[in-house]
Amino acid sequence: MPLDKEVVAAIYAEHGGVLRRFALRATHDPGLADDLVQEVVFRAWRKAPEPTNMRGYLLATARNLLIDQYRAAGRRPPESPDADLPERPQGDRTVNSIAEVDRLLDQVLVEEALTRLQRDHREVVRVLYYEGLTVNQAADLLKIPAGTVKSRAYYAVRSLRAVLDEMGVAQ
Fold first, then answer.
1. Does 151 fall in a domain?
2. Do residue 123 and residue 42 come from a single domain?
3. Between the chain's N and C termini, which has fewer beta carbons within 10 Å?
4. Is 45:37 a contact under the CB 8 Å cutoff?
């Protein structure tokens, strides 16, 4: 049974931002990203998956659509140049590999999971993992003891695992 309009609106409200970020990173084109999100939600509307696994279904569908686009682009003959159309930049192709689609999806999921952490834990993860600082450097930067950095990192990783599990991401 298809979903009603209120449910579709709720899907957009709850999951649209994550889907669009993922699609935009993969396509580098706001129009294509919006089209992809619309197609994903349309497929959810047609299939009406279980609400407990909605995000997993939506992201898997988006991933599969991007991979389909990537494969289709490899099979198409090159487009003939048209003097009236501006040349499309080389880096504007949707994705360069299936592995890149997976990497982009992982990146979006981790970023979203990080937003659900406590601010102190998120800050420690940022300086240790994204900036590559040592524990002592992080302690100096954050103006907290090194032991506090270690304990916050430990609890941040535990919290991240719980959040990713809650999001339906297999670890």
1. yes
2. no
3. N
4. no
